[in-house]
Amino acid sequence: MRTTPLIPAAITLAIAPFAFCDPPLLPHTRFIDHLSDLGHLPLFFFLSLTVLRALERRSRPVRAAAALCLTLACAVAIEWIQQFLPNRNVSATDIANSTIGSILALLWFLPARRQPFAAAVVSGLLLLFSITPLATLVADHLLARRAFPLLFDFERGGEMQRVSGSARCRIVGGHAAHGEHSLQLQLDTRQYSGVSFRYFPQDWRRMSALLLEVDNPQPQPVTVHVRIHDQRHDADGMRYQDRFNRTLALAPGRNAIRLPLADVRHGPKNRKLDLGQVAGIGLFVMREPRPLTLYLDHLRLE
Per-residue pLDDT averaged across 230-245, rounded? Predict the structure, then answer.
């Protein structure tokens, strides 16, 4: 008896919005983003199953080739389209999860003779590969909460998940104010070159100051700009006047920086920054005449 492709097709359509759209009732967090990435796996599992059911009268090689080719074509096309959409970007992880979903469908619904143990082992390895980024994120989140009021000390590679920016950033040995490692920033000559820190514990209301150490190996002072913003700033267009901004002159050698949170709270021009929802810290240089290197370490609250 021929099975219908309508059920897996309906499930595919039901899952699609969760894989490609931000959930409207949930906050936009990196955890939700990773769950959305994982949504590509069941989506393309059921898409491939739909193809296998629709081509049930065809040979096994034809069905397998059709399912895989359609999966890859759709996954690549979707990622290509997303580069033209606001707040979306091309993701190799999405393509990998889409492909894994298709392979899982082939493992369980196409084999000429059932080999459940082998299929289970391969499926387990593929699923482990898919969930590793999410598991790493959860582990980093728990470690960050445990370390608070320490925000970053760059003794763990997992902290780099919460570091981004136009500067080339990497953890290196030496130049450390605490522990054995620091964050090396290789800054260039573009208008803005710097680093951003996010996804740390956001409630700073019981703290009095943000402290960090910056090592300047240049023989001359370097002017840097520090910015701190809250979640409302992200939602209201990220205007310069709607956050805390401070310009600092770094002397050659080690610089200990202390930013009172009372100043941070009064940073926005027309309101007070919400110290219960601090969302990001940035440090950058502007229009430097030549590339330069700085080392950051021991970002913490007191």
Answer: 85
Across 114-118, 184-188, 292-296, least confident range: 114-118
pLDDT band at 17 (very low <50, low <70, confident <90, very high): low
9 by Cβ neighbours in 10 Å (0-12 / 13-18 / 19+) ranks as middle
CA 254, CA 31: separation in Å to the nearest integer? 36
Give dist(CA 36, CA 169) in Å, integer. Answer: 27
Compute CA distances 75 → 64, 70, 85, 100, 103, whole Å: 16, 8, 16, 11, 14
| Contact of 256 with 292, CB cutoff 8 Å | no
3-state secondary structure labels for all residues of the chain? CCCCCHHHHHHHHHHHHHHHCCCCCCCCCHHHHHHHHHCHHHHHHHHHHHHHHHCCCCCHHHHHHHHHHHHHHHHHHHHHHHCCCCCCCCCHHHHHHHHHHHHHHHHHHCCCCCCHHHHHHHHHHHHHHHHHHHHHHHHHHHHHHHHCCEEECCCCHHHHHHEECCCEEEEEECCCCCCCEEEEEEECCCCEEEEEEECCCCCCCCCCEEEEEEEECCCCCEEEEEEEEEHHHHHCCCCHHHCEEEEEEECCEEEEEEEEHHHHHCCCCCCCCCCCCEEEEEEEEECCCCCEEEEEEEEEEC
Side-chain-side CA neighbours of residue 103 (13 Å): 15
What pLDDT does 223 receive?
94
| Cβ-contact 32, 23 below 8 angstroms | yes
pTM exceeds 0.90, yes or no: no
**Residue 34, phi then psi, degrees to nearest 5:** -70, -40
Is residue 243 within 8 A of residue 228, CB to CB? The reply is: yes
Per-residue confidence at 57, pLDDT binned at 50, 70, 90? Answer: confident
- What was the pLDDT predicted at 25? 46
